[in-house]
Amino acid sequence: MLTVESLRFAYPSGPSIVESLSERFVPGQMVGITGPSGRGKSTLLYLLGLMLTPTSGRILLDGKSVAGLRDAERARLRARQFGFVFQDAALDATRTVLDNVLETALYRGESRRALSPTALALLDRFGVSLRVHAKPGQVSGGQAQRIALARALLLQPRVLLCDEPTGNLDPASTDIVLDALREHASSGGVVVVVTHDQAVVAHCDREVRL
Ligand code: ADP
Ligand code: MG
Q1: Which residue puts its alpha carbon closest to atom 18 of ligand 1?
Q2: Which ligand has the nearest atom to the CA of 48?
Q3: What is the pLDDT of residues 45-79, one digit of tens each?
Q4: Could you report the per-residue pLDDT of 106-155, keeping only the tens digit for each?
Q5: Residue 185's domain spans which residues?
């Protein structure tokens, strides 16, 4: 379980963006985070993903306070327990699609040979299997989002955080992504998804409005 207690955050010399937020993100549940542009949805997701440190308050993973850990420990925790889909996909332009999906796993010391079939199966499921030898510059925005989701799901993270993962998708691809998120929650994952899309909100168990 991922919990935040009295979470507050401001960028240096900026106003408070997250103000005294307390929430529980429970395994098995898909939680939607909504709110107007610029309200702090991405910032909250970076906090949950241990990429930003709260100004005050706590972030707990299974009861253990994790926000104050040293950078190296947070990085290790992120690689082992978290999957993150950035709003702009954030693929590495110098690597192939397949290598992008394998990236975090290789960082963790997993074997390329063991994980390639899983990576290819995920890409196939998400409808981007024909593009595995392409570089990210050659795929569309919607394909990049699905590649980023395949990367985030590869190691079956306990916590899956997605920033507008269906922003560039047609309804059929949105359904494929929603099915994958739901399946991840059903298998015991914590799923948090930032979205503007009412179709996505409708599939969530709970909505947190910022
Ligand atoms: P949302 O995802 O809801 O659109 P963001 O979390 O991206 O909102 O941004 C919330 C606010 O924080 C915005 O006013 C934005 O300009 C500001 N902001 C975002 N990133 C930074 C940063 N790195 N430094 C300073 N301010 C930032
Ligand atoms: Mg955002």
Answers
A1: 11
A2: 1
A3: 999 999 999 999 999 999 999 998 999 999 999 98
A4: 888 888 999 999 999 999 999 988 777 889 988 988 999 999 999 999 99
A5: 2-209
Q: Which residues line ligand 1 (CB under 6 A)?
A: 11, 14, 17, 35, 37-43
**Which numbered atom of ligand 1 lies nearest the CA of 163?**
2
| pLDDT at res. 91 | 93
- The distance from CA 141 to its chain's CA centroid, rounded to whole angstroms, is 17
Specify the CATH number for the domain of residue 137: 3.40.50.300
Which residue's CA is the nearest one to ligand 1's atom 26?
A: 11
Identify which of 85, 201, 83, 184 has the alpha carbon closest to the alpha carbon of residue 144: 85
Q: Provide long-range contacts, Cβ within 8 A and 24+ apart, for 133-139.
A: 133/96, 133/97, 133/98, 134/96, 134/97, 135/93, 135/94, 135/95, 135/96, 135/97, 136/89, 136/91, 136/92, 136/93, 136/95, 136/97, 136/100, 137/93, 139/97
CA–centroid distance, residue 109 to ligand 1 (Å):
33
Q: Residue 127: left if φ>0, alpha if ψ -120 to 50, beta else—which one? A: left
| CA gyration radius, the chain | 17
Phi/psi for 89 (5° steps) reads 75, -45
Q: Whose CA is nearest to atom 21 of ligand 1?
A: 11
Residue nearest to atom 13 of ligand 1 (CA): 38
Residue given tokens 């192939």 in the structure block: 96
| Count: domains in the chain | 1
DSSP state of 205: S
